[in-house]
Amino acid sequence: MAIDQRTGQLSSQPSSQPSSYDVAEIRSHFPALSLTQDGLPLAFFDGPGWTQVAQAVIDAITRYYKESNANDGGAFLTSHRSDDVVRRAHTGVAEFLNARSGDEIKFGANMTTLTFHVSRSIGKTLRPGDEIVVTTLDHEANVSPWKAMAEDRGVTVRTVDIHAEDGTLDLDDLDRKLGERTRLVAVGYASNALGTINPVAEIVRRAHAVDALSYIDAVHFAPHGPIDVQALDTDFLVCSAYKFFGPHAGVLYGKEAVLDSLPPYKVRPAHDHFETGTPNFEAISGTLAAVDYLAWVGERFGAAYAAEFAPFSGRRLNLKTGMRAIRAYELDLYERLADGLERIPGAHLWGITDHARFNERTPTAAVTFDGHAPRAVSEALGERGITTWDGNFYAQALIERLGLEESGGVLRIGLAHYNTADEVDRLLGALKEIVAS
Known about the structure:
By secondary structure, the chain is α/β, with parallel strands linked by helices. It has helices spanning 23-27, 55-67, 77-97, 111-123, 144-153, 171-177, 200-209, 229-232, 256-261, 281-301, 314-342, 374-383, 396-401, 421-436; strands at residues 36-37, 40-41, 43-44, 105-108, 131-135, 156-160, 162-163, 168-169, 182-188, 213-217, 236-240, 250-254, 347-350, 364-369, 386-387, 389-391, 410-414. It is 39% helix and 15% strand. Strands 4-12-11-10-9-5-6 form a seven-stranded mixed sheet, sandwiched between helices. Strand 9 (182-188), helix 7 (200-209) and strand 10 (213-217) form a beta-alpha-beta unit. The longest helix is centred in the last third of the chain and has 29 residues, at 314-342. It is globular.
């Protein structure tokens, strides 16, 4: 299958060559995958909450502390080294997202903190009666900051509903919520609970048609497919490095002209409007290492997909083909998972369940089991050395909309590019035992 560079979704066109993806080689980069519990290797299906970290990331953070540990702007060696790492990290993330330059990249504590900060700056430009559009499908980190700002500024928040039967956004409802007073549309690239991938480029187009800004939460999508902010034409996009095999750091992309137009909230001498205070330089160095790792994936396994990214070259090409190779591998693995879950009595998959539409989702399964609370199932899996999450994952409005909040939400099984078919089979076998009991 070929990939739509704007959305990250796969088309029905076959790839010209099969992938040479070697999951054993991938796994050799992740030391945590060697951990055991009761004599069995841990099987990590908790990636949507926090992915495991590549050894190169660990090494980069250690190296920073050993060789570059200093504040920025100093007239001495370690500060020069630190400044160089930070500059290269901005450039590296710009390449990862296909931003025009590192000037359009800002680092912060996490996506939530960055969004609260940006919402304050955007809010200062709004007036009572202006409107913001959010969605039921989203993580609260792309809803609550806008609601809090709207309450302070007298701004109206309008919420786009979903199609509950498949967990997709109701685009007709989006059109009904857009209007001449809309100033911002905040939407997720993909649902962290159901895995639904939104038609982001189309949503951005509709937002711009009413002269509104777009703010895309790509935290869940970033580890699962290539992102091209220029093709999307979005004004903002946020993600978190700890969801794509790096350290705990948040990343904000903003069009340079839009960032420069916003009123700053910063201390007076600070050189940057959005990277307030002393940044977490060691985490920034680790983020660069995570991007370097993903570029290696493309160099090693992405050649079969180069034709799909003809305009790209160098590291930008490697990053796109690497994420494309990851997406192809993960979707094959998700087919195996979905097939197995569908055979378990009393199991209910939520979201897009039509195999012909798996190109519209990430490899993240939301499932419930008749007679078994999600927490109890997750605990039973944890006792067997299998990591999963349960609950609403801060997608509270979505889980409430599906009528699942009071019963404990869902069990979330998140595949990552380092998972294996054997791990999926082990998980399915454990679930059959748990449900049978």
